[in-house]
Specification:
- The radius of gyration is 27 Å and the shape is globular.
- The protein is built from eight helices and 44 strands.
- 8% of the residues lie in helices and 42% in strands.
- A hairpin with a 4-residue loop joins strand 27 (387-392) and strand 28 (397-402).
- By secondary structure, it is mostly beta strands.
- The structure holds dinuclear copper ion.
- Residues 533, 563, 598, 600-602, 606, 609 line the site of dinuclear copper ion.
Protein backbone atom coordinates (compact mmCIF):
# COMPACT_ATOMS: atom_id res chain seq x y z
CA UNK A 1 0.00 0.00 0.00
CA UNK A 2 0.94 3.61 -0.46
CA UNK A 3 2.22 3.98 3.07
CA UNK A 4 5.12 1.62 2.37
CA UNK A 5 6.68 4.13 0.01
CA UNK A 6 6.18 7.02 2.31
CA UNK A 7 8.44 5.80 5.03
CA UNK A 8 11.55 6.19 2.96
CA UNK A 9 13.01 9.23 1.30
CA UNK A 10 15.64 9.02 -1.37
CA UNK A 11 18.67 11.23 -1.06
CA UNK A 12 21.79 11.57 -3.11
CA UNK A 13 24.73 11.85 -0.80
CA UNK A 14 28.37 12.51 -1.56
CA UNK A 15 29.71 11.64 -4.98
CA UNK A 16 26.43 10.64 -6.52
CA UNK A 17 25.87 7.67 -4.27
CA UNK A 18 22.16 7.30 -3.83
CA UNK A 19 21.35 5.88 -0.47
CA UNK A 20 18.11 5.38 1.30
CA UNK A 21 17.60 7.06 4.57
CA UNK A 22 14.68 5.89 6.59
CA UNK A 23 12.63 8.78 7.81
CA UNK A 24 11.31 8.53 11.32
CA UNK A 25 7.98 7.44 9.95
CA UNK A 26 8.22 3.94 8.52
CA UNK A 27 4.81 2.92 7.27
CA UNK A 28 2.40 0.47 8.76
CA UNK A 29 4.92 -2.00 10.07
CA UNK A 30 6.30 0.34 12.71
CA UNK A 31 4.19 2.82 14.57
CA UNK A 32 5.64 6.31 14.29
CA UNK A 33 7.52 7.35 17.37
CA UNK A 34 5.47 10.42 18.01
CA UNK A 35 4.99 11.94 21.38
CA UNK A 36 1.38 12.32 22.30
CA UNK A 37 2.29 13.96 25.56
CA UNK A 38 -0.11 14.80 28.31
CA UNK A 39 -3.34 15.19 26.36
CA UNK A 40 -5.25 16.94 29.13
CA UNK A 41 -2.53 19.57 29.59
CA UNK A 42 -2.21 19.99 25.81
CA UNK A 43 -5.98 20.41 25.46
CA UNK A 44 -6.07 23.15 28.07
CA UNK A 45 -3.06 24.88 26.49
CA UNK A 46 -4.67 25.04 23.05
CA UNK A 47 -8.38 25.26 23.81
CA UNK A 48 -9.87 28.62 22.93
CA UNK A 49 -13.33 28.53 24.45
CA UNK A 50 -16.33 29.71 22.40
CA UNK A 51 -16.31 33.50 22.48
CA UNK A 52 -12.64 33.70 23.50
CA UNK A 53 -9.94 34.86 21.14
CA UNK A 54 -6.56 33.58 20.10
CA UNK A 55 -3.37 35.20 21.35
CA UNK A 56 -1.42 35.39 18.05
CA UNK A 57 -2.08 35.83 14.36
CA UNK A 58 -0.45 33.16 12.24
CA UNK A 59 0.13 34.11 8.61
CA UNK A 60 1.30 31.18 6.62
CA UNK A 61 2.28 31.09 3.02
CA UNK A 62 0.03 29.08 0.75
CA UNK A 63 2.84 27.87 -1.52
CA UNK A 64 1.54 26.97 -4.95
CA UNK A 65 -1.99 28.02 -3.95
CA UNK A 66 -0.66 31.58 -4.16
CA UNK A 67 -2.57 32.70 -1.06
CA UNK A 68 -1.88 33.59 2.56
CA UNK A 69 -3.78 31.63 5.19
CA UNK A 70 -4.61 33.33 8.48
CA UNK A 71 -5.02 31.23 11.61
CA UNK A 72 -5.05 31.87 15.32
CA UNK A 73 -2.56 30.57 17.86
CA UNK A 74 -2.92 28.53 20.01
CA UNK A 75 -6.13 27.17 18.45
CA UNK A 76 -4.64 26.84 14.92
CA UNK A 77 -8.15 27.48 13.62
CA UNK A 78 -8.12 28.73 10.03
CA UNK A 79 -9.85 32.12 10.11
CA UNK A 80 -9.31 33.69 6.72
CA UNK A 81 -7.62 33.31 3.36
CA UNK A 82 -5.97 36.33 1.80
CA UNK A 83 -5.68 35.79 -1.94
CA UNK A 84 -2.45 37.22 -3.33
CA UNK A 85 -1.11 35.72 -6.56
CA UNK A 86 -4.09 33.58 -7.52
CA UNK A 87 -7.73 34.50 -8.25
CA UNK A 88 -10.09 33.60 -5.42
CA UNK A 89 -13.82 33.63 -6.11
CA UNK A 90 -14.71 33.63 -2.42
CA UNK A 91 -13.70 37.27 -2.22
CA UNK A 92 -13.98 38.05 -5.93
CA UNK A 93 -10.21 38.60 -6.01
CA UNK A 94 -9.04 38.59 -9.61
CA UNK A 95 -12.57 39.15 -10.92
CA UNK A 96 -12.90 42.90 -10.54
CA UNK A 97 -10.99 45.40 -12.65
CA UNK A 98 -8.52 46.49 -9.98
CA UNK A 99 -7.37 43.07 -8.75
CA UNK A 100 -7.42 41.63 -12.27
CA UNK A 101 -4.99 44.36 -13.29
CA UNK A 102 -2.82 43.58 -10.25
CA UNK A 103 -2.62 39.88 -11.19
CA UNK A 104 -1.46 40.90 -14.66
CA UNK A 105 -3.02 37.89 -16.38
CA UNK A 106 -1.29 35.33 -14.17
CA UNK A 107 -3.30 32.40 -12.91
CA UNK A 108 -1.01 31.45 -10.05
CA UNK A 109 1.97 32.27 -7.95
CA UNK A 110 4.30 30.08 -5.93
CA UNK A 111 4.35 31.82 -2.59
CA UNK A 112 7.15 30.93 -0.24
CA UNK A 113 8.19 33.28 2.54
CA UNK A 114 5.89 35.91 4.02
CA UNK A 115 7.55 38.76 5.91
CA UNK A 116 5.97 41.30 8.24
CA UNK A 117 7.29 44.82 7.88
CA UNK A 118 9.65 45.97 10.63
CA UNK A 119 10.63 49.20 12.34
CA UNK A 120 13.78 49.18 14.49
CA UNK A 121 14.03 45.42 14.09
CA UNK A 122 10.53 44.60 15.33
CA UNK A 123 7.24 43.95 13.59
CA UNK A 124 5.38 47.22 13.12
CA UNK A 125 2.05 45.70 12.02
CA UNK A 126 1.83 47.71 8.80
CA UNK A 127 2.35 45.31 5.91
CA UNK A 128 2.91 41.70 5.06
CA UNK A 129 5.07 40.97 2.04
CA UNK A 130 5.19 37.68 0.16
CA UNK A 131 7.18 36.39 -2.78
CA UNK A 132 6.22 34.54 -5.94
CA UNK A 133 8.99 32.14 -6.88
CA UNK A 134 7.46 31.25 -10.24
CA UNK A 135 6.62 34.63 -11.72
CA UNK A 136 9.26 36.70 -9.87
CA UNK A 137 6.95 39.01 -8.02
CA UNK A 138 6.58 40.47 -4.55
CA UNK A 139 3.20 41.34 -3.09
CA UNK A 140 2.27 43.75 -0.33
CA UNK A 141 -0.71 43.07 1.87
CA UNK A 142 -2.02 45.98 3.92
CA UNK A 143 -2.74 44.81 7.46
CA UNK A 144 -5.14 47.75 7.84
CA UNK A 145 -7.72 45.67 5.93
CA UNK A 146 -5.89 42.37 5.23
CA UNK A 147 -5.97 42.89 1.48
CA UNK A 148 -3.36 42.65 -1.23
CA UNK A 149 -2.63 46.19 -2.41
CA UNK A 150 0.37 45.86 -4.66
CA UNK A 151 2.11 43.23 -6.73
CA UNK A 152 5.54 44.35 -7.87
CA UNK A 153 7.24 42.57 -10.71
CA UNK A 154 8.31 40.70 -12.63
CA UNK A 155 11.61 41.67 -11.02
CA UNK A 156 14.11 42.31 -13.80
CA UNK A 157 16.94 39.72 -14.08
CA UNK A 158 15.56 37.54 -11.27
CA UNK A 159 14.62 34.03 -12.31
CA UNK A 160 12.91 32.04 -9.56
CA UNK A 161 12.48 34.55 -6.74
CA UNK A 162 12.95 32.05 -3.93
CA UNK A 163 15.34 33.86 -1.56
CA UNK A 164 12.58 36.35 -0.74
CA UNK A 165 10.80 38.05 1.06
CA UNK A 166 12.99 38.93 4.00
CA UNK A 167 13.17 42.48 5.24
CA UNK A 168 15.89 44.71 6.66
CA UNK A 169 15.29 46.14 10.18
CA UNK A 170 13.44 49.25 9.01
CA UNK A 171 11.95 47.64 5.92
CA UNK A 172 14.39 49.64 3.82
CA UNK A 173 14.61 46.66 1.47
CA UNK A 174 12.93 43.38 0.72
CA UNK A 175 15.46 40.76 -0.24
CA UNK A 176 15.16 38.88 -3.49
CA UNK A 177 17.43 36.36 -5.26
CA UNK A 178 17.68 34.18 -8.33
CA UNK A 179 17.15 30.50 -7.81
CA UNK A 180 17.53 29.47 -11.45
CA UNK A 181 20.39 31.27 -13.14
CA UNK A 182 19.80 32.16 -16.79
CA UNK A 183 21.60 34.20 -19.45
CA UNK A 184 20.97 37.92 -18.84
CA UNK A 185 19.19 40.03 -19.76
CA UNK A 186 16.23 37.68 -19.82
CA UNK A 187 15.33 36.58 -23.29
CA UNK A 188 19.00 35.98 -24.16
CA UNK A 189 19.88 32.55 -25.52
CA UNK A 190 23.00 30.63 -24.54
CA UNK A 191 23.47 26.84 -24.84
CA UNK A 192 23.33 24.87 -21.61
CA UNK A 193 27.00 23.89 -22.11
CA UNK A 194 27.84 27.53 -21.38
CA UNK A 195 26.04 27.45 -18.03
CA UNK A 196 29.16 28.07 -15.92
CA UNK A 197 30.17 31.18 -17.79
CA UNK A 198 27.19 32.65 -19.65
CA UNK A 199 24.44 32.10 -17.09
CA UNK A 200 24.13 34.55 -14.19
CA UNK A 201 22.44 34.91 -10.89
CA UNK A 202 21.33 38.09 -9.20
CA UNK A 203 20.68 39.13 -5.60
CA UNK A 204 18.58 42.22 -5.08
CA UNK A 205 17.09 44.69 -2.66
CA UNK A 206 13.60 45.95 -3.50
CA UNK A 207 13.12 49.37 -1.93
CA UNK A 208 9.99 50.11 0.12
CA UNK A 209 8.58 53.62 0.47
CA UNK A 210 8.38 54.15 4.25
CA UNK A 211 5.13 56.13 4.00
CA UNK A 212 3.12 54.23 1.40
CA UNK A 213 4.83 50.84 1.28
CA UNK A 214 5.15 51.24 -2.47
CA UNK A 215 7.89 49.02 -3.92
CA UNK A 216 10.57 49.88 -6.48
CA UNK A 217 13.91 48.39 -7.47
CA UNK A 218 16.72 49.43 -5.13
CA UNK A 219 19.81 47.59 -6.30
CA UNK A 220 20.87 44.35 -7.91
CA UNK A 221 24.22 42.57 -7.71
CA UNK A 222 25.41 40.30 -10.51
CA UNK A 223 26.35 36.87 -9.14
CA UNK A 224 27.87 33.64 -10.44
CA UNK A 225 25.38 31.01 -11.63
CA UNK A 226 24.75 29.47 -8.22
CA UNK A 227 21.23 28.59 -7.08
CA UNK A 228 20.38 31.19 -4.43
CA UNK A 229 18.03 29.70 -1.93
CA UNK A 230 17.03 31.58 1.22
CA UNK A 231 17.85 34.93 2.75
CA UNK A 232 17.90 36.93 5.96
CA UNK A 233 18.37 40.57 6.77
CA UNK A 234 21.17 41.43 9.18
CA UNK A 235 20.19 43.36 12.30
CA UNK A 236 21.79 44.77 15.44
CA UNK A 237 25.46 43.80 15.13
CA UNK A 238 24.96 42.82 11.47
CA UNK A 239 22.66 45.69 10.47
CA UNK A 240 23.46 46.80 6.94
CA UNK A 241 24.09 43.26 5.71
CA UNK A 242 21.94 40.83 3.82
CA UNK A 243 22.63 37.10 3.60
CA UNK A 244 21.58 34.43 1.11
CA UNK A 245 22.41 30.75 1.08
CA UNK A 246 23.34 29.16 -2.24
CA UNK A 247 23.80 25.68 -3.62
CA UNK A 248 25.18 24.35 -6.88
CA UNK A 249 28.33 26.43 -6.52
CA UNK A 250 29.72 23.67 -8.77
CA UNK A 251 27.89 25.58 -11.55
CA UNK A 252 26.64 22.22 -12.72
CA UNK A 253 23.70 21.28 -14.90
CA UNK A 254 21.77 18.10 -15.45
CA UNK A 255 20.98 15.83 -12.53
CA UNK A 256 21.66 18.36 -9.80
CA UNK A 257 21.07 15.93 -6.95
CA UNK A 258 24.37 14.42 -8.05
CA UNK A 259 26.17 17.11 -10.00
CA UNK A 260 25.62 19.92 -7.51
CA UNK A 261 26.73 17.97 -4.45
CA UNK A 262 30.33 17.32 -5.45
CA UNK A 263 32.05 19.97 -3.37
CA UNK A 264 32.17 19.84 0.40
CA UNK A 265 31.14 23.43 0.73
CA UNK A 266 28.75 25.86 -0.86
CA UNK A 267 28.40 29.52 0.07
CA UNK A 268 26.44 32.07 1.97
CA UNK A 269 26.55 35.36 0.08
CA UNK A 270 26.91 38.40 2.33
CA UNK A 271 25.94 41.72 0.76
CA UNK A 272 26.77 45.04 2.39
CA UNK A 273 23.60 46.76 1.23
CA UNK A 274 24.71 50.18 2.40
CA UNK A 275 27.73 49.77 0.09
CA UNK A 276 25.36 48.62 -2.66
CA UNK A 277 23.25 51.76 -2.17
CA UNK A 278 26.39 53.88 -2.35
CA UNK A 279 27.65 52.14 -5.49
CA UNK A 280 24.35 52.86 -7.25
CA UNK A 281 24.52 56.51 -6.11
CA UNK A 282 28.10 56.76 -7.40
CA UNK A 283 27.08 55.42 -10.80
CA UNK A 284 29.03 52.18 -10.37
CA UNK A 285 26.56 49.97 -12.18
CA UNK A 286 25.69 48.50 -15.53
CA UNK A 287 22.20 48.63 -16.90
CA UNK A 288 20.97 45.09 -17.50
CA UNK A 289 17.37 44.31 -18.29
CA UNK A 290 16.55 47.98 -17.78
CA UNK A 291 17.76 48.06 -14.18
CA UNK A 292 20.91 49.10 -12.31
CA UNK A 293 23.14 46.11 -11.62
CA UNK A 294 26.39 46.19 -9.66
CA UNK A 295 29.14 43.94 -11.03
CA UNK A 296 31.24 42.92 -7.98
CA UNK A 297 34.29 42.50 -10.23
CA UNK A 298 34.25 46.26 -10.83
CA UNK A 299 32.96 47.31 -7.42
CA UNK A 300 34.76 45.52 -4.58
CA UNK A 301 33.38 45.69 -1.03
CA UNK A 302 29.73 45.00 -1.89
CA UNK A 303 29.58 41.20 -1.70
CA UNK A 304 31.59 38.40 -0.05
CA UNK A 305 31.15 34.63 0.01
CA UNK A 306 31.19 32.62 3.24
CA UNK A 307 31.87 28.88 2.75
CA UNK A 308 29.33 26.69 4.52
CA UNK A 309 28.32 23.01 4.64
CA UNK A 310 27.23 21.81 1.23
CA UNK A 311 23.72 22.30 -0.11
CA UNK A 312 22.57 24.72 2.58
CA UNK A 313 18.94 25.69 2.85
CA UNK A 314 18.21 28.27 5.54
CA UNK A 315 20.43 31.11 6.63
CA UNK A 316 19.15 32.69 9.83
CA UNK A 317 20.37 35.65 11.85
CA UNK A 318 20.13 35.59 15.66
CA UNK A 319 17.98 38.28 17.36
CA UNK A 320 21.05 40.32 18.40
CA UNK A 321 22.41 40.04 14.86
CA UNK A 322 25.70 38.57 16.14
CA UNK A 323 25.36 35.10 14.67
CA UNK A 324 24.52 33.86 11.22
CA UNK A 325 23.45 30.21 11.24
CA UNK A 326 23.77 28.14 8.07
CA UNK A 327 22.88 24.48 7.76
CA UNK A 328 24.04 22.10 5.05
CA UNK A 329 21.08 19.87 4.44
CA UNK A 330 23.26 16.86 3.61
CA UNK A 331 25.32 17.30 6.77
CA UNK A 332 24.45 16.68 10.38
CA UNK A 333 26.00 19.92 11.54
CA UNK A 334 24.90 23.48 11.46
CA UNK A 335 27.52 26.22 11.43
CA UNK A 336 27.39 29.35 13.53
CA UNK A 337 29.22 32.27 11.91
CA UNK A 338 30.18 35.34 13.90
CA UNK A 339 29.62 38.77 12.37
CA UNK A 340 32.65 40.25 14.18
CA UNK A 341 34.85 37.54 12.68
CA UNK A 342 33.28 38.09 9.24
CA UNK A 343 33.99 41.83 9.43
CA UNK A 344 37.51 41.14 10.65
CA UNK A 345 38.19 38.67 7.82
CA UNK A 346 36.96 41.25 5.33
CA UNK A 347 39.16 43.95 6.90
CA UNK A 348 42.29 41.77 6.97
CA UNK A 349 41.51 40.28 3.53
CA UNK A 350 41.55 36.79 4.99
CA UNK A 351 40.36 35.26 1.72
CA UNK A 352 40.92 31.78 0.32
CA UNK A 353 40.06 32.61 -3.27
CA UNK A 354 37.38 34.25 -5.35
CA UNK A 355 34.42 33.43 -7.59
CA UNK A 356 34.12 35.77 -10.56
CA UNK A 357 35.94 38.43 -8.56
CA UNK A 358 33.93 37.94 -5.34
CA UNK A 359 36.26 37.22 -2.39
CA UNK A 360 35.72 33.94 -0.53
CA UNK A 361 36.28 34.32 3.21
CA UNK A 362 38.35 31.81 5.17
CA UNK A 363 35.85 29.39 6.71
CA UNK A 364 37.93 28.72 9.84
CA UNK A 365 38.36 32.43 10.45
CA UNK A 366 34.66 33.32 10.34
CA UNK A 367 32.97 30.38 12.02
CA UNK A 368 32.44 30.24 15.74
CA UNK A 369 31.35 26.65 16.06
CA UNK A 370 29.81 23.68 14.29
CA UNK A 371 26.86 22.22 16.20
CA UNK A 372 25.96 18.58 15.69
CA UNK A 373 22.19 19.11 15.56
CA UNK A 374 21.10 15.98 13.69
CA UNK A 375 20.22 14.74 10.21
CA UNK A 376 19.11 17.07 7.46
CA UNK A 377 19.17 20.46 9.22
CA UNK A 378 17.21 23.07 7.27
CA UNK A 379 16.13 26.18 9.17
CA UNK A 380 16.87 27.73 12.55
CA UNK A 381 14.65 29.91 14.72
CA UNK A 382 15.45 31.65 18.00
CA UNK A 383 13.67 32.25 21.29
CA UNK A 384 14.21 35.01 23.85
CA UNK A 385 16.20 32.86 26.26
CA UNK A 386 19.30 32.16 24.20
CA UNK A 387 18.21 28.96 22.49
CA UNK A 388 18.08 28.04 18.83
CA UNK A 389 15.72 25.52 17.25
CA UNK A 390 16.72 23.75 14.06
CA UNK A 391 14.36 21.76 11.85
CA UNK A 392 15.72 18.34 10.83
CA UNK A 393 14.07 17.15 7.63
CA UNK A 394 15.63 13.70 7.43
CA UNK A 395 15.29 13.02 11.12
CA UNK A 396 11.73 14.47 11.30
CA UNK A 397 12.55 16.37 14.45
CA UNK A 398 13.37 19.74 15.96
CA UNK A 399 16.64 20.14 17.87
CA UNK A 400 16.85 22.75 20.62
CA UNK A 401 20.37 23.95 21.26
CA UNK A 402 22.23 26.53 23.27
CA UNK A 403 23.39 29.66 21.41
CA UNK A 404 26.63 29.90 23.36
CA UNK A 405 29.13 27.66 25.12
CA UNK A 406 28.98 24.71 25.31
CA UNK A 407 26.74 25.01 22.17
CA UNK A 408 25.05 21.73 23.04
CA UNK A 409 21.77 20.17 21.92
CA UNK A 410 19.61 20.08 25.03
CA UNK A 411 16.39 18.61 23.64
CA UNK A 412 14.91 17.06 20.53
CA UNK A 413 11.27 16.46 19.65
CA UNK A 414 10.01 14.21 16.85
CA UNK A 415 7.47 15.71 14.43
CA UNK A 416 5.00 14.15 12.00
CA UNK A 417 6.66 14.18 9.50
CA UNK A 418 9.59 15.63 7.58
CA UNK A 419 9.62 19.18 8.77
CA UNK A 420 10.51 22.01 6.41
CA UNK A 421 10.31 25.45 7.92
CA UNK A 422 9.60 26.12 11.55
CA UNK A 423 8.46 29.34 13.12
CA UNK A 424 8.79 31.03 16.50
CA UNK A 425 6.84 34.30 16.89
CA UNK A 426 9.22 37.16 16.08
CA UNK A 427 12.26 34.92 15.52
CA UNK A 428 13.36 37.11 12.63
CA UNK A 429 13.07 40.27 14.73
CA UNK A 430 15.20 41.55 17.62
CA UNK A 431 12.59 40.40 20.16
CA UNK A 432 11.26 36.88 19.68
CA UNK A 433 8.48 35.52 21.89
CA UNK A 434 9.70 32.14 23.09
CA UNK A 435 6.33 30.61 23.73
CA UNK A 436 5.65 28.30 20.79
CA UNK A 437 7.41 26.80 17.85
CA UNK A 438 5.36 25.76 14.83
CA UNK A 439 6.58 22.76 12.89
CA UNK A 440 5.56 23.16 9.24
CA UNK A 441 5.71 19.55 8.09
CA UNK A 442 5.66 18.16 4.58
CA UNK A 443 3.98 14.82 5.22
CA UNK A 444 0.83 14.17 7.20
CA UNK A 445 -0.28 10.61 6.46
CA UNK A 446 -2.14 8.89 9.24
CA UNK A 447 -2.47 12.04 11.35
CA UNK A 448 -5.92 12.94 10.03
CA UNK A 449 -8.97 11.27 8.55
CA UNK A 450 -8.15 10.06 5.07
CA UNK A 451 -8.90 12.44 2.22
CA UNK A 452 -7.55 10.35 -0.63
CA UNK A 453 -4.21 10.55 -2.38
CA UNK A 454 -3.72 14.31 -2.10
CA UNK A 455 -2.79 14.81 1.50
CA UNK A 456 -2.83 18.16 3.31
CA UNK A 457 0.19 19.78 4.90
CA UNK A 458 0.63 19.34 8.59
CA UNK A 459 1.39 21.98 11.18
CA UNK A 460 2.23 21.12 14.75
CA UNK A 461 2.17 23.50 17.68
CA UNK A 462 4.88 22.90 20.24
CA UNK A 463 5.24 24.56 23.63
CA UNK A 464 8.80 25.83 24.21
CA UNK A 465 8.37 27.54 27.57
CA UNK A 466 10.01 24.71 29.50
CA UNK A 467 13.33 22.89 29.16
CA UNK A 468 11.62 20.09 27.25
CA UNK A 469 9.59 20.87 24.15
CA UNK A 470 5.99 19.70 24.44
CA UNK A 471 3.78 18.75 21.49
CA UNK A 472 0.37 20.41 21.85
CA UNK A 473 -1.62 20.17 18.66
CA UNK A 474 -1.80 18.98 15.04
CA UNK A 475 -3.53 21.06 12.37
CA UNK A 476 -3.80 20.70 8.60
CA UNK A 477 -3.83 23.23 5.82
CA UNK A 478 -4.20 23.66 2.11
CA UNK A 479 -0.90 23.40 0.25
CA UNK A 480 1.63 24.47 1.09
CA UNK A 481 2.95 26.44 4.02
CA UNK A 482 6.60 27.19 3.58
CA UNK A 483 7.51 29.87 6.06
CA UNK A 484 5.10 31.71 8.35
CA UNK A 485 4.95 34.89 10.40
CA UNK A 486 3.38 35.19 13.83
CA UNK A 487 2.45 38.42 15.57
CA UNK A 488 0.61 39.18 18.79
CA UNK A 489 -3.05 39.93 18.23
CA UNK A 490 -2.86 43.28 20.04
CA UNK A 491 -0.29 44.53 17.51
CA UNK A 492 -2.85 44.67 14.69
CA UNK A 493 -6.03 46.73 14.55
CA UNK A 494 -7.67 45.90 11.23
CA UNK A 495 -10.76 47.87 10.22
CA UNK A 496 -13.99 45.97 9.57
CA UNK A 497 -15.88 48.67 7.66
CA UNK A 498 -14.63 51.22 5.11
CA UNK A 499 -15.94 54.53 6.28
CA UNK A 500 -17.59 56.73 3.68
CA UNK A 501 -14.67 59.15 4.10
CA UNK A 502 -12.12 56.43 3.42
CA UNK A 503 -13.75 55.36 0.16
CA UNK A 504 -11.90 57.47 -2.41
CA UNK A 505 -13.32 55.71 -5.45
CA UNK A 506 -14.53 58.48 -7.83
CA UNK A 507 -17.32 56.17 -8.98
CA UNK A 508 -18.70 55.49 -5.52
CA UNK A 509 -22.32 56.52 -4.95
CA UNK A 510 -24.09 56.62 -1.60
CA UNK A 511 -27.68 57.43 -2.54
CA UNK A 512 -29.97 55.19 -4.59
CA UNK A 513 -31.05 58.34 -6.47
CA UNK A 514 -27.57 58.38 -8.06
CA UNK A 515 -27.80 54.78 -9.24
CA UNK A 516 -28.50 54.14 -12.91
CA UNK A 517 -27.27 53.42 -16.38
CA UNK A 518 -25.48 55.74 -18.82
CA UNK A 519 -24.39 54.98 -22.33
CA UNK A 520 -21.57 56.36 -24.47
CA UNK A 521 -21.61 54.60 -27.84
CA UNK A 522 -21.05 50.93 -27.06
CA UNK A 523 -19.82 51.66 -23.54
CA UNK A 524 -22.43 51.22 -20.85
CA UNK A 525 -21.79 52.37 -17.31
CA UNK A 526 -23.91 51.03 -14.48
CA UNK A 527 -23.62 52.73 -11.12
CA UNK A 528 -25.11 50.31 -8.64
CA UNK A 529 -25.76 50.24 -4.92
CA UNK A 530 -25.92 47.16 -2.74
CA UNK A 531 -27.62 47.41 0.61
CA UNK A 532 -29.74 44.88 2.52
CA UNK A 533 -31.31 43.30 0.56
CA UNK A 534 -31.51 44.99 -2.83
CA UNK A 535 -29.32 45.91 -5.75
CA UNK A 536 -30.28 49.26 -7.26
CA UNK A 537 -30.97 49.20 -10.17
CA UNK A 538 -32.81 45.89 -9.96
CA UNK A 539 -32.44 45.48 -13.71
CA UNK A 540 -30.61 47.11 -16.60
CA UNK A 541 -30.66 46.70 -20.34
CA UNK A 542 -27.75 46.62 -22.78
CA UNK A 543 -27.20 45.65 -26.39
CA UNK A 544 -25.32 42.54 -27.31
CA UNK A 545 -21.65 43.39 -27.79
CA UNK A 546 -21.72 46.37 -25.43
CA UNK A 547 -18.78 46.91 -23.12
CA UNK A 548 -20.33 47.03 -19.66
CA UNK A 549 -18.75 48.58 -16.56
CA UNK A 550 -20.51 48.10 -13.24
CA UNK A 551 -19.39 50.27 -10.32
CA UNK A 552 -20.87 48.57 -7.31
CA UNK A 553 -20.88 50.37 -3.97
CA UNK A 554 -21.91 48.61 -0.80
CA UNK A 555 -23.27 51.48 1.30
CA UNK A 556 -23.55 49.42 4.49
CA UNK A 557 -21.59 50.82 7.42
CA UNK A 558 -22.06 47.74 9.58
CA UNK A 559 -19.47 45.05 10.23
CA UNK A 560 -20.09 41.66 8.57
CA UNK A 561 -22.42 43.16 5.93
CA UNK A 562 -20.59 42.30 2.75
CA UNK A 563 -22.56 41.59 -0.40
CA UNK A 564 -21.58 39.39 -3.28
CA UNK A 565 -22.39 40.01 -6.94
CA UNK A 566 -22.52 36.93 -9.10
CA UNK A 567 -23.89 36.82 -12.62
CA UNK A 568 -25.40 33.70 -14.09
CA UNK A 569 -23.65 32.32 -17.20
CA UNK A 570 -21.17 35.22 -17.26
CA UNK A 571 -18.45 33.76 -15.02
CA UNK A 572 -18.50 36.81 -12.78
CA UNK A 573 -18.39 37.05 -9.01
CA UNK A 574 -17.11 39.73 -6.68
CA UNK A 575 -17.51 40.55 -3.02
CA UNK A 576 -18.03 44.13 -1.92
CA UNK A 577 -17.27 44.87 1.72
CA UNK A 578 -19.16 47.48 3.75
CA UNK A 579 -18.34 50.94 2.42
CA UNK A 580 -16.36 49.58 -0.52
CA UNK A 581 -16.71 50.19 -4.27
CA UNK A 582 -15.53 47.64 -6.80
CA UNK A 583 -15.53 47.65 -10.58
CA UNK A 584 -16.58 44.84 -12.91
CA UNK A 585 -15.90 45.10 -16.64
CA UNK A 586 -17.10 42.69 -19.28
CA UNK A 587 -18.52 42.43 -22.77
CA UNK A 588 -22.18 41.48 -22.96
CA UNK A 589 -21.47 38.97 -25.70
CA UNK A 590 -24.45 36.70 -25.06
CA UNK A 591 -27.98 37.83 -25.77
CA UNK A 592 -30.82 36.99 -23.44
CA UNK A 593 -31.67 37.65 -19.82
CA UNK A 594 -29.14 36.99 -17.07
CA UNK A 595 -29.74 37.18 -13.38
CA UNK A 596 -27.29 38.79 -10.98
CA UNK A 597 -27.59 37.91 -7.35
CA UNK A 598 -25.95 38.32 -3.99
CA UNK A 599 -23.50 35.48 -3.35
CA UNK A 600 -22.90 36.22 0.33
CA UNK A 601 -25.59 35.40 2.86
CA UNK A 602 -26.38 38.85 4.20
CA UNK A 603 -29.87 38.83 5.72
CA UNK A 604 -33.07 36.87 6.03
CA UNK A 605 -33.95 38.19 2.57
CA UNK A 606 -30.54 37.44 1.06
CA UNK A 607 -32.17 35.10 -1.42
CA UNK A 608 -34.34 37.98 -2.64
CA UNK A 609 -31.29 40.10 -3.41
CA UNK A 610 -31.24 39.67 -7.17
CA UNK A 611 -31.77 41.47 -10.48
CA UNK A 612 -31.60 41.01 -14.24
CA UNK A 613 -29.31 42.14 -17.03
CA UNK A 614 -31.28 42.14 -20.26
CA UNK A 615 -29.16 41.82 -23.39
CA UNK A 616 -30.90 42.71 -26.62
CA UNK A 617 -29.66 40.60 -29.53
CA UNK A 618 -27.41 42.39 -31.98
CA UNK A 619 -27.06 41.87 -35.72
CA UNK A 620 -25.68 38.40 -36.50
CA UNK A 621 -25.89 37.59 -32.83
CA UNK A 622 -24.96 34.26 -31.36
CA UNK A 623 -27.45 32.56 -29.15
CA UNK A 624 -26.80 32.32 -25.46
CA UNK A 625 -25.94 28.65 -25.36
CA UNK A 626 -22.37 28.56 -26.56
CA UNK A 627 -21.51 25.08 -25.35
CA UNK A 628 -23.34 21.79 -25.59
CA UNK A 629 -24.04 20.68 -22.06
CA UNK A 630 -22.32 17.43 -21.24
CA UNK A 631 -24.77 14.55 -21.07
CA UNK A 632 -27.05 16.17 -23.65
CA UNK A 633 -27.41 14.53 -27.05
CA UNK A 634 -24.34 15.42 -29.03
CA UNK A 635 -22.37 16.11 -25.86
CA UNK A 636 -19.79 13.86 -24.27
CU1 LIG B 1 -26.61 40.67 0.02
CU2 LIG B 1 -26.77 38.27 0.38
Amino acid sequence: MATKKMGVKRFAVGAGVAILIAASYSGCARKPKIQRGDTAAAAIATYVAPGDLDEFYLFYSGGQSGSIFVAGIPSLRHIATIPVFTPYPATGYGFDKETKAMLGGHLWGDMHHPALSQTNGDYDGRWLFANDNANNRIARIDLHDFKTKEIYGPLPNVSGNHGSTFVTPNTEYILSATRFSVPLPKGTYAPIEQYATSYKGVVAGVAVDPKTGHMSMGWEVLMPPFDFDLGSGGKGASDGWAFWSSYNTERATGKLEVTSTQKDRDYIAAVNWKAAEQAIKNGKFKTIGGTKVIDPKDTPGVVFLIPCSKSPHGVDVSPDGKYIVGSGKLASITTVFNIDKILNAIQTKNFTGNEDGIPVLNYDAVKDVEVNVGLGPLHTQFDDKGYAYTSLFVESAIAKWRMGPPWDVIDKIPVAYNIGHLCIPGSDTMHPVGKYVLALNKLSHGRHISVGPTQPESTQLIDITGDKMRLLYDAFTEPEPHYAQVIRVDRLKPIEVYSKEENKDPNAIWDVKDAGVTRNGKNVIVKMIAVRSTFTPTSFEVNQGDHVTVYLTNIEQTTNESHGFGMVDYDINILVDPGETRTIEFTADKSGVYAYYCTKFCSALHQEMQGYMLVKPGAGAKTALLRTPSGAPGGH
